[in-house]
Amino acid sequence: MELNNKNILITGGNGMIGRQLEKLLLTTTTSNITIADLPDFDLRDRGVCEKICEGQDIVFHLAGIKGSPIRCMESPASFSVPMIQFNSNMIEAAYNSDVDWFLYTSSVGVYHPAEVFEEDDVWKTFPSENDWYAGWAKRIGEMNVEAYMKEYSWNKCSIVRPANVYGPYDNFGEWSMVVPSLIKKAHEDDVLEVWGDGSPIRDLIYSEDVARGMVHMVENQITEPVNLGSGNGVTIREIAEIVSDYFQKEIVWDKTKPMGDSKRLMSMERAENHGFIPTTDFKDGILKTIEWYLNERN
Question: Is the peptide bond preceding residue 168 cis, with omega within 30 degrees of 0?
């Protein structure tokens, strides 16, 4: 699929992936890009979704609610209910507007804990207890996309499942994820306090690589769910050491705190079979994120 000279809508375009996607499209295409994000566009309103999809050729639906697993468990309705609402509205609106292609952004949170996450295993299990509410909300979005594809032969949809995404424009505030949280603490505190013992393994992918993966799936009209990760595990300890070395801060391990799932690693076989491979080394990506944070935090 050609992305030049298209009307392209990005929901959640002010987030860290959305900004990278907009930048990528502006530098590689001559398309007209529209950003729909809070506070100007409340996607819980069906009328808003119908209006912003009118006249669009391609819709990248990135809008979501991001937060730490603990935050998701403490305030589950604040995550699951709005996501189910706006995902359903956007899928319906994109179909009714007969767009050329619709991309739905799912999450690593749809998976049950396993050594390696395989795309076809999602519906054989339940989401992890650490991602229970947000994971189900993302799963329901996937199911609704597939329902439209099945009932209406709407074979114009891609579903991507990003791993642990990090990069510029991440949330460095309260309830942030592991990378921005460690960067913020290392910059502000005398020591770098890290929850657990550093042994959990995560699959990190730089936000720019996620944007590239999304464009790749749309250009190649991939209709089956695809993981977007690195396929390479990195421990929390390794991440903490990179951050602590940069800021010259001692690491203090708080083993009384929860650590989450022991391993979350994505299979990248399907993505590679479709021709996509991420290119950003995780250490380089973390250093870029630190530098962005120090320059832009205010």
Answer: no
147-156 long-range contacts, Cβ below 8 Å, gap at least 24?
Answer: 148/91, 148/95, 149/223, 152/95, 154/95, 155/223, 156/99, 156/100, 156/101, 156/102, 156/221
- Six-digit token pair at 83? 């996501």
The pTM (predicted TM-score) of the whole model is 0.93
The Cα 294–Cα 298 span in angstroms is 9
DSSP bridge pairs for 227: 161
Structure tokens at 187: 């910059």
Angle between helices 282-296 and 236-247 (to 10 degrees): 50
**By the 8 A CB rule, do 87 and 137 touch?**
yes
What are the pLDDT tens digits along the chain (298 aa)?
Answer: 999 999 999 999 999 999 999 999 999 999 999 999 999 999 999 999 999 999 999 999 999 987 666 777 788 888 899 999 999 999 999 999 999 999 999 999 999 988 899 999 999 999 988 789 999 999 999 999 999 999 999 999 999 999 999 999 998 876 678 899 999 999 999 999 998 999 999 999 999 999 999 999 999 999 999 999 998 889 999 999 999 999 999 999 998 887 777 888 999 999 999 999 999 999 999 999 999 999 987 6
Q: Which of 294, 194, 173, 206 is nearest to 238 (CA)?
A: 194
| Rounded (10°) CA dihedral 146, 223, 10, 17 | 110
DSSP 176-236: --HHHHHHHHHHHSSSEEEES-S--EEEEEEHHHHHHHHHHHHHTT--S-EEES-S-EEEH
| Helix runs in 29-131, H state only | 46-53, 69-74, 76-96
